[in-house]
Specification:
Length: 161
């Protein structure tokens, strides 16, 4: 949690610079239960992001299970109407790469879909108060990846957004 507090000013600066460039950011987080220690930690981070200018909403996994007949919904990022990325994670759950898409029709459909999910989501502030705030501090359920994991795998530093 200390690291989250330390990042607060950086996140304010980041969201201000993104907004001054004319970009609006929205994020929808699908949340499954029970809440794992990692998810609890991530929701703390997302709450800080929301408070610093990056609007975030939450949907229950139950609310989207009818959309996942072919597997989990992908983790996608749309930058504008010309490019979209799908996050690809390694076996440790660390971001490994991203697949780039430039099919404008696909991007339009995905942006519309994300907007619909966002509209139907709950603001993270109310979800957090109800589901997370009362929990004891999260303890890792397993050892984290080694400190030199990214470097030893020739990987860049974690992304900032």
């Amino acid at each position: 949690m200390r690291l989250l507090r330390e990042r607060r000013d950086d996140l304010v600066d980041y969201h201000r610079s993104v907004a001054s460039a004319g970009t609006q950011t929205y994020r929808i987080r699908i949340v499954d239960t029970p809440i794992t220690p990692y998810l609890q930690w991530e929701l703390n981070l997302l709450k800080v992001r929301d408070e610093t200018g990056g609007p975030i909403r939450v949907l229950s996994a139950r609310d989207v299970e009818h959309l996942e007949d072919l597997g989990s919904l992908p983790d996608i990022y749309t930058m504008d109407d010309r490019v979209m990325y799908q996050a690809v994670y390694d076996a440790n759950g660390v971001l490994e790469s991203a697949r780039r898409f430039d099919d404008k029709d696909l991007i339009r459909k995905c942006r519309t879909f994300i907007a619909e999910l966002y509209i139907s989501g709950e603001p993270i502030s109310s979800f957090f108060r109800r589901e997370i705030e009362h929990l004891p501090p999260a303890k890792p359920e397993r050892p984290s990846i080694p400190r030199d994991y990214l470097e030893s795998n020739n990987r860049p530093d974690p992304i900032r957004s």
